Amino acid sequence: MQGWPYSVIVALEVGRGSWTAPLDAVRLAPGDNTANVTARQICDLMA
Known about the structure:
Helix content: 25-40%
Number of strands: 2
Number of domains: 1
Largest sheet: 2 strands, antiparallel
Number of helices: 1
Order of helices and strands: EEH
């Protein structure tokens, strides 16, 4: 069974913990270039 592909950006906790904070999630469309989607997410996050 296939799932829906997503590109997710999270912030990691400082130190030895395992907590994460989701910052952005984008559902990938068929044919999306994952590198381009990730680069766009990072640019949008930094803006």
